[in-house]
Amino acid sequence: MREFVAEVVSIGRLWQCNLVQLLGYCRRKGELLLVYDYMPNGSLDRCLYDWSRTALSWGQRFRIIKGVASGLLYLHEDWEQVVVHRDIKASNVMLDKEMNARLGDFGLARLYDLGYPCLTCLAVLSMGKPY
Fold first, then answer.
1. Which position among 37, 45, 50, 87 bears the catalytic label?
2. Which residues does the UniProt record annotate as the domain Protein kinase (predicted)?
């Protein structure tokens, strides 16, 4: 539990406009509660697969993918450690009130020191959802 809390504290220090901000946490009786920014437009998968919603315009789609790429660049190259998210999918891309993309759900993320041997060789797969 101590190692997990240390990792949560590290992830809480991440700040970039395309990441869902961890606002705080509470640890009590072996349980851990994480508090994040509220994302009023929900997740990208709801926008893509909920047919009752208006389809995203091409401009919105471009801004969303650009936001995801910007968030990943920060995680991989611009922070004090390398953060490998390991679970990029539409349900982990959250949309703020202006429909800007923010990466969330760092539950599978791993932190590595800069210069970690063969980090570019690391390949991790996560099971996708068939549609």
1. 87
2. 1-131
**Segments making up each domain of the chain, as ranges:** 39-121
Per-residue tokens: 19: 């990441």
Q: CB under 8 Å to 93, separation ≥6 — which residues?
A: 43, 44, 45, 64, 68, 101, 102, 103, 104
Evaluate if pTM is beyond 0.85.
Answer: no
Q: How many residues would you count in the chain?
A: 131
Position 22 scores a pLDDT of 87
Residues of the chain with pLDDT under 70: 1, 4, 106-131
Name the CATH superfamily for 39-121: Transferase(Phosphotransferase) domain 1 (1.10.510.10)
Say what the pLDDT of residue 82 is: 72
- Sequence-separated (6 or more) residues with CB below 8 Å from residue 107: 87
Those residues with Cβ within 8 angstroms of residue 129's Cβ, 6 or more apart along the chain or in another chain: 89
| Sign of the CA dihedral with 95 first, then 98, 101, and 105 last | negative
What would you measure as the largest C-alpha separation in the chain, in angstroms? 47
| Distance separating alpha carbons of residues 97 and 115, to the nearest angstrom | 37
